[in-house]
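Tokens as discussed.
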């Protein structure tokens, strides 16, 4: 048991109080954001923006360039999603729907473009030399596609979050960001619950229409 605690706490013994506090803020606001997403509440975006901006700084400090790119993109997509969720079309807010063929092609395109871009960034910094970099590339592509689908209220975004979170949980512990590893564990649970909640709402909307 002590070995587990040592593995979790060792990276924080050399971390500054500022970086530890910032990671906790990013974790708590990130969890709040996913909780609000599950509830289909617009607060998903302001809380998410706080979390991602803080993570941009943290990832830069740890030279986690793949994760840094993810969080810059999350911030921009949160602004876009905030607009989409509050924008009225024919006096109606955007509703939860399933992806069509066009959505799937766009999501795959986002994944592939992102993966190539992340590899190029790592090569530019001469840093594509750790096993975690390969997983960073994979999760970045998955999360980019998921974020775009979420902004457009496509229920399948939860499936991508689940896949990405399963990969990210052990990955963040390996990177030495234990609090973030716990965060992604909670994300995984919330993503499953979010999928069930959105599916219930979607089925209800279909039955009404």
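Sequence:
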């Amino acid at each position: 048991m002590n070995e587990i605690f040592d593995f979790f706490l060792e990276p924080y013994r050399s971390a500054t109080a500022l970086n530890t506090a910032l990671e906790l803020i990013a974790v708590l606001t990130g969890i709040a954001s996913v909780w609000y997403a599950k509830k289909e509440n617009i607060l998903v975006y302001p809380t998410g923006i706080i979390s991602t901006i803080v993570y941009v700084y943290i990832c830069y400090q740890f030279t986690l360039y793949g994760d840094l790119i993810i969080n810059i993109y999350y911030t921009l997509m949160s602004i876009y999603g905030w607009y989409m969720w509050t924008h009225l079309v024919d006096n109606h807010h955007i509703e939860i729907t399933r992806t069509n063929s066009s959505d799937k092609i766009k999501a795959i395109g986002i994944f592939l473009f992102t993966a190539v871009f992340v590899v190029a960034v790592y090569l530019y910094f001469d840093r594509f030399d750790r096993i975690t970099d390969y997983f960073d590339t994979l999760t970045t592509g998955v999360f980019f596609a998921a974020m775009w689908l979420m902004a457009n209220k496509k229920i399948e975004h939860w499936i991508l979050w689940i896949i990405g979170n399963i990969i990210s949980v052990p990955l963040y512990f390996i990177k030495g960001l234990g609090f973030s590893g716990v965060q992604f564990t909670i994300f995984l649970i919330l993503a499953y619950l979010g999928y069930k909640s959105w599916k219930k709402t979607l089925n209800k909307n279909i039955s009404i229409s």
